[in-house]
Write a structure and sequence with these properties.
The chain is α+β, with helices and mostly antiparallel strands. The chain has 9 helices and 9 strands.
Length: 279
């Protein structure tokens, strides 16, 4: 089996990585520092999605209900809502979709406000997650940050707990069948595929040979991707990294390129997949 840590160094990445790969039954196939805590970046949106779907299935969140976007709701960074004017009427399903598909930070904050930070963190503990924690809403100016954020606190997670969340979704734990299907569908439409989806081979028409349902995350020097990969042996993958040296948000980012180059050969081997698409 390939040594991912050695391969990623050989590819030129000098930072820290955490990686866990399992099958859909949760059986560990590869692990490197899976319990190291990393800044969550946008992978915090995975448990937010699951909690919202759980509430929707229980009838305490109506996904068809509409809320109105206010000027003060808009925050910078990933997504599109900060580019749009106030007064837009969004359903909660729209909010979930934007939060994942284009990693919209404004949509994420709307959901955090709806779920409640303390209630959300209590739920994380209830489902057995000790290292994944929401410190606060995203991309707030200093005067709107909470005390923990002003002290430098950051949302956090581990590769192992991201895998546990993805397995929870796959097995429908706490979810109705329609909400499980919706969650998988939303993750499969995620548009930022720089790591897990980067090396997936395509057919002659350019369509990926293997379906991916994933969520990326990025901060300065931080590049994450977590998701489900339907290779011949389906995989659950969580790759977290920090300490990258290329600050560019660009497909040719050297850190992303190095991580992706090391990751796909390992996933292809573990998933009994074609490296090139010639199957």
């Amino acid at each position: 089996m390939l040594d991912f840590a050695a391969e990623v160094r050989r590819a030129g990445f000098a930072g820290e990585v955490g990686l866990l790969v399992t099958d859909l039954g949760g059986h560990e196939l590869y692990a490197h520092a899976p319990d190291v805590v990393f800044p969550a970046a946008s992978t915090i949106k995975v448990p937010l999605l699951l909690r919202a779907l759980e509430q929707a299935g229980a009838g305490t969140l109506d996904l068809t209900e509409r809320m109105t976007l206010r000027a003060e709701d808009r925050v910078p960074g990933a997504g599109v809502l900060h580019e749009l004017g106030p007064g837009l009427a969004l359903s909660w399903q729209d909010v979930l979709t934007l939060m994942i598909v284009v990693s919209d930070n404004t949509a994420t904050n709307l959901l955090i406000e709806r779920l409640g930070e303390d209630d959300f963190n209590t739920w994380l503990r209830e489902i057995g997650l000790r290292d994944t924690h929401l410190v606060g809403r995203l991309q707030l100016p200093p005067e709107r940050q909470n005390a923990a954020q002003r002290r430098g606190g950051r949302n956090r997670t581990t590769a192992r707990e991201q895998v546990r969340l993805l397995l929870r979704l796959w097995h429908g734990e706490g979810l109705t069948a329609p909400m499980r299907a919706l969650g998988l569908d939303i993750l499969a439409r995620q548009q930022l595929r720089d790591l897990i989806g980067r090396g997936v081979p395509a057919d002659a028409a350019g369509q990926p040979l293997y379906r991916v349902a994933s969520k990326s995350g990025e901060l300065m020097g931080v590049h994450h991707d977590v998701g489900l990969l339907w290779t011949p042996r389906p995989l659950v993958v969580a790759l977290l990294s920090q300490g990258g040296s290329d600050p560019r948000e660009h497909p040719a980012n050297r850190d992303v390129t190095a991580l992706g180059a090391a990751l796909w050969p390992l996933l292809a081997d573990l998933g009994h997949a074609s490296h090139t698409g010639d199957i």
